[in-house]
Design a protein that fits this description.
By secondary structure, the chain is of the alpha/beta class. It contains 35 helices and 19 strands.
Length: 857
């Protein structure tokens, strides 16, 4: 059990050395499984250094170490499949598709496989729902096969589960409990009207508590509050504060029971009646599609990561294969075990049945549920090892100093509950505290004049101001390399958010304070404006009738055409609405330059590769010259180059423009993401997502955007290995507006609980990236992580600072097209000097604006 910063990598390398030096095993007999290839490389380097430092280290040992199986679990599974292809039922000489390639291959092959399904497969499901279900199930085939074979629970049983869960959630809510405490603690004389309301509310509470014990109907508790109103004179002389506290408690109970009423009245509906007949059709379609995809993969000799895991499992179920590896591999060390999924757990169970097994992990850092990781796997293995082996806890932080560790202990204990274990530390603080500060933006959430964008920019400017102050004052920090105390530098600072979408505002604010900042990694390339600009261009070149893509290009820094000029062009379209023809004939000066190079590009589209078209568009328009003058230029240029590189990969094999565009559209529609190119920070503040920050550390960490609410995820299908499969919409129900099956609702509730627990763990990961100082920041009083974090801070005695809302600085108007054109002209040839302008809000000039596009079309 390795807490954050507790020297886990050192433990792994010394454990490997122990197997070799003390137990006398060959390095070839010790398997070390890591989460990433980078971690495997680092671990091999550490072990190599330790072995070389040992007296008597032989060349044979060092040579064996270079060939030792220190790798990811997928690489280990691939090795088993290559060595036993017949037992694994995989083609010989297969190539491995990485996660992105696997999703791409699946997206391209799925439609063809579905097209071969018989017509009866769609009797209970619309084609679109069937496709979405099969696509989502295909991301975890082992779970899908188990879930589709599981017997469905009775709908009446599910209804009871949902009612009991809703009731338990209500009674366990801290806000409810506080309200009930107030109701029971504050009493008034019988003649007071507020006392009658209190008695009526307490009666409802008593009924609800009895319902939880099975002695009453929860619907009766909800009905007991019906008609209760807090209007009229409710005061009592000299006790105004108690009256207000009681009114608030009554209001909380009334609203909670109002929300609870539909939950405790839930009954099976049309979808529950239809689903048992539809589910076998889905199972049959799944089996047929998987068989067709397996044939296609065998013909193409390719396997994705899920295929590797399943193939290795099939091989290890053969006694002779197990005996082969039991004789070869005597010890296993598995890192980041909290991020293991159930399929990988079954694979490791077979491999380690007769071997020494060491697992290293921290259930507080299990944050990859979206990659199918299941922290319960770690708990099961931990219990099994503790029953017949031993457990060691690494509870000393070599990252963070003593005072900050003490503060984090107080905050994380209520935040993580049973998962928490107090850490200690050895290092003294480089300066006096406070070492953890929190600042919430004090703005009325009901004030519609303040937009969410205003709040985010105001938060960003406040964080930038605090970082600038720490830099200017030379906040003392500990230098990990030298051990000395020195002033804070920009490269010592990281701004971390849950999603990369929040980071541009903080980058803009830091740059406005003269502080260099770089979004180093994290996020989907397809979500960047630079990629969208290039994709719009390729889409229009492939289909000149696509007016929306053409207008997007014209409004981008590539076309740099003002909206006014586009409106004038729209007025000349006539009945044909042919934007491409109108562009060729345009006489407006603001459009003429774009029309010339776009026309030239269309003429070259048949002879040039798609990536060459992007490069030529850049040269003709001066696109990257414009990007170089915008905030976050390095990040923008890297994203543009990342798109060019991606398109070049898709061209391999002679793909033409239309084929490449079709593949890109399929990828985006299927939700396949492409990681943005990583950047070196240099002497700059790092901006990245919390997931990307795992394993890293900085002297000062600002954890921001804490009030952002998590996205609502409503997949088409939900699956559980024991309970079965349920779809959100069953077409054969009486109406597509009918509620989803109760099984879908139950699985959605279970998933929501898992996601909330994971969000708390993600918050812990973010806080423990800090070595010397931690800033917490939010753009609202409540919501998002604050619902969990605020009570934890209060219990630790930390009072947030309330930052008065002030409108963020007015951003300058976007630069005129003529200035952009002169910058492009300068980029293409000598003569004119570079044009430098302050473009803090220039991004708003080209981002997709539905209302503006509606007016134009």
């Amino acid at each position: 059990m390795a807490g954050a910063g507790a020297g886990k990598t050192t433990l792994l390398s010394r454990r490997f050395l122990h197997h070799v030096q003390v137990e006398g095993l060959s390095p070839l007999a010790v398997v070390a499984v890591t989460f990433t290839e980078l971690a495997a490389t680092e671990l091999r380097a550490r072990v190599r250094a330790l072995v070389q430092a040992q007296p008597g280290a032989t060349p044979d040992t060092l040579g064996a170490l270079e060939a030792a199986p220190i790798c990811t679990l997928h690489a280990l599974a691939a090795r088993i499949c290559r060595e036993h292809p017949d037992a694994a039922e995989v083609p010989r000489g297969f190539r491995v598709l990485d996660e992105r390639e696997g999703r791409l291959w699946q997206a391209e092959q799925l439609d063809a496989a579905i097209a071969r399904l018989p017509a009866r497969s769609f009797e209970g499901l619309a084609w679109s729902h069937m496709r979405q279900a099969l696509e989502e199930l295909g991301r975890e085939p082992h779970l899908a096969a188990q879930a589709l074979a599981a017997p469905l629970p009775e709908p009446t049983e599910l209804a009871a589960w949902l009612r009991d869960a809703a009731l338990a959630d209500c009674l366990a809510d801290p806000t409810w409990q506080h309200a009930v405490e107030s109701l029971r603690a504050i009493a008034f004389p019988p003649e007071a009207r507020i006392e009658a309301l209190r008695a009526q509310t307490l009666q409802a509470v008593t009924l609800l508590e009895a319902a939880a014990a099975g002695a009453a109907d929860p619907a009766a508790a909800c009905a007991a509050m019906s008609g209760l109103a807090l209007r009229g004179k409710l005061g009592w002389p000299g006790r105004d504060s108690e009256v207000e506290a009681l009114k608030e408690a009554i209001r909380v109970v009334r609203e909670a029971l109002k929300a609870l009423e539909p939950e405790v009245s839930v009954q099976p509906g049309p979808a529950d009646q239809a689903w048992p007949a539809v589910q076998p059709l889905l199972r049959e379609a799944w089996e047929q599609v998987q068989a067709q995809l397996a044939v296609a993969k065998r013909q193409a000799r390719c396997l994705d990561y899920a295929d590797l895991e399943l193939g290795a499992l099939r091989a290890l179920r053969q006694p002779e294969v197990r005996a082969f590896y039991q004789a070869r591999w005597k010890a296993f060390i598995v890192d980041e075990f909290q991020d293991t999924n159930p399929t990988q757990a079954e694979l490791l169970t077979w491999l380690t049945a007769d071997a020494r097994l060491t697992i290293v992990g921290d259930d507080k850092q299990a944050i990859f549920g979206f990659r199918r990781a299941d922290v319960s796997v770690f708990h099961r293995f931990r219990e099994a090892i503790a029953a017949r082996g031993e457990e060691r806890s690494l509870l000393t932080s070599y990252r963070t100093h003593v005072p900050l560790v003490a503060v984090l202990n107080r905050v994380c204990a209520p935040l993580l509950g049973a998962l928490h274990r107090d850490m200690d530390a050895r290092r003294a603080a480089p300066a006096d505290g406070p070492h953890l500060t929190a600042a919430w933006l004090d703005v009325d959430p009901h004030d519609r004049r303040v937009t969410s964008g205003d709040r985010q920019r105001a938060e960003a400017f406040d964080v930038a101001e605090r970082i600038a102050r720490d830099l200017a004052e030379g906040r003392p920090v500990h230098d990990r390399r030298t051990g000395a105390i020195r002033p804070l530098a920009p490269t010592d600072v990281a701004v971390l958010a849950r999603t990369w979408a929040a980071l541009p505002a903080f980058e803009e604010a830091l740059r406005a304070r003269g502080i260099a900042a770089v979004q180093t990694k994290g996020g989907d390339l397809f979500d960047t404006q630079e990629a969208l600009d290039g994709l719009s261009l390729l889409q229009w070149l492939a289909d000149p009738a696509d007016a929306l893509s053409l207008v997007a290009v014209l409004r981008s820094p590539m076309g740099h055409v003002p909206d006014g000029a586009l409106a004038e062009l729209a007025a000349t379209l006539g009945d044909t609405r042919d934007w491409s023809a109108a562009l060729a004939e345009a006489s407006q000066p603001d459009i003429r330059h774009a029309a010339q190079w776009l026309t030239a590009l269309r003429a070259a589209r048949r002879g040039d590769a798609p990536s060459d078209l992007l490069v030529r568009a850049d040269h003709l328009s001066g696109y990257t010259a414009v990007l170089a003058h915008l905030p976050g230029a390095a990040r923008r240029l890297a994203d543009w180059q990342g798109l060019v590189t991606l398109v070049r990969e898709f061209e391999r094999g002679g793909q033409d423009l239309e084929s490449v565009v079709l593949r890109l559209r399929r990828l985006r529609a299927s939700g396949v993401s492409f990681e943005r190119p990583a950047l070196e920070t240099g002497e700059a503040v790092s901006l990245m997502t919390l997931h990307a920050s795992k394993g890293l550390e900085w002297p000062l960490v600002a954890l921001v955007d804490l009030a952002r609410r998590p996205p609502v995820h409503t997949p088409t299908v939900r699956a559980d290995a024991q309970l079965g499969v349920a779809l959100r919409i069953v077409a054969s129900a009486s109406s597509e507006e009918a509620p989803p099956p109760l099984l879908y609702r139950w699985l959605a509730r279970e998933q929501a609980l898992l996601e909330r627990a994971e969000r708390r763990r993600l918050l812990y990961v973010g806080m423990t990236r800090a070595r010397d100082h931690l800033m917490l920041s939010a753009a609202a009083r409540a919501g998002g992580w604050l619902d969990d974090l605020a009570p934890a801070l209060a219990s630790a005695g930390i009072v947030p600072t309330w930052v008065p809302f002030a409108p963020p600085p007015e951003a300058p108007s976007p630069p005129r097209a003529s200035a952009i054109t002169r910058a492009a002209d300068w980029a293409l040839g000598p003569g004119a000097p570079p044009i430098r302008f302050d473009p803090a809000a220039w991004g708003q000039a080209w981002r997709a604006d539905d209302e503006a596009l509606d007016r134009l079309s």
